[in-house]
């Protein structure tokens, strides 16, 4: 029997509630564990702001988007926090181990705390699918489905007005959402951070389908950098982990393409719509399996580990492995899509 704390931190993501439900039900049924949830991620740990999690509180939440615990981009090691502050608060609340559900920033903080002797188990979460130690993260499948549906709609209005349409999707420094959504919607160009295409090449990809009587479609990842750019486009400063808040590359490209090609061009940034709404069936299943596995790691006292998916198996890896490198789109995957550009 253990008293387990759970937090969801960083950007929200479809499937978070399914993880919470699986952890709580698995822990109660197998070991009579008790649970508390920290409100708004690491901020809840710093402020000792918690809610009790029991059988009734997680009933029916797997299908809900977002997170019932709330989330934030609070850095627990920043101002007002620190390792000893976290340790003291967890001890005061009687928490034996913390399950941290999050992406790169959340798990980086979790590793530092774990290295300092605080019992932590990680669960990977990001729509960007960019964590290197797991084949897929829950939320990615839903984000791609949402992006695909939205881009399909953009195509029809583009065809009606004979315009070039640009759809900007999330992904930070990885192009997985753009690649999958672009291939699914038969985009005439897919622009991702891993490939620094130049403006002349992009304009040629736009002009080719237009000459055939088609409305050109470009899918661009928010972290894309053209050969003419020195860094990704961001105008909203940095987050709590000193990472750029990307967004706006589509609007930056649209007038350039229109000026160079003479083709009327419009850009749409899908933004946070990709993270909202109900999770797909695939994400619900993956999130549930990871939640069950996280409780298993708790009872094996496998501190500092993260549950992950390899092929169809759920495995455990060290948090350091999860943060070792960014999982980016390999050249072969991009080349497959690029055959159909233009």
Give a written overview of the molecule.
This protein is of the alpha/beta class and 342 residues long. It has 2 domains: 3-138 and 279-322, Rossmann fold; 140-276, Rossmann fold, CATH 3.40.50.460. Helices cover 39% and strands 17% of the residues. The protein has a 7-stranded mixed β-sheet, sandwiched between helices. It has a 4-stranded parallel β-sheet with strand order 7-8-6-9, with helices on both faces. Helix 1 packs across helix 9 and helix 5 (140-161) packs across helix 6 (176-184). The longest helix is centred in the middle third of the chain and has 22 residues, at 140-161. The radius of gyration is 21 Å and the shape is elongated.
Task: List the main descriptive attributes of the protein structure presented here.
alpha/beta, Rossmann fold, four-stranded parallel β-sheet, ATP-dependent 6-phosphofructokinase, glycolysis, seven-stranded mixed β-sheet, Phosphofructokinase_CS, elongated
Q: How many domains, as an integer?
A: 2
CATH architecture of the largest domain: 3-Layer(aba) Sandwich
Number of strands: 11
- Output the number of helix runs: 11
Q: Please state the average pLDDT score.
A: 93
Secondary-structure element order, N to C = EHEHEHEHEHEHEHEHEHEEHH
Q: Kindly provide the radius of gyration, computed on alpha-carbon positions and rounded to a whole number of angstroms.
A: 21 Å
N-to-C CA distance: 60 Å
Main β sheet profile: 7 strands, mixed
Q: What share of residues is helical?
A: 25-40%
Give the oligomeric state.
single chain
Q: Could you say which overall geometry the principal axes of the C-alpha atoms support? A: elongated
- Derived from helix and strand composition plus strand pairing, the structural class reads alpha/beta
User: Major sheet: order of its strands?
Assistant: 3-2-1-4-5-10-11
Strand content: 15-25%
Report the CATH topology name of the largest domain: Rossmann fold
Ranges where pLDDT stays below 50 over 5 or more residues in a row are none
CATH class label of the largest domain: Alpha Beta
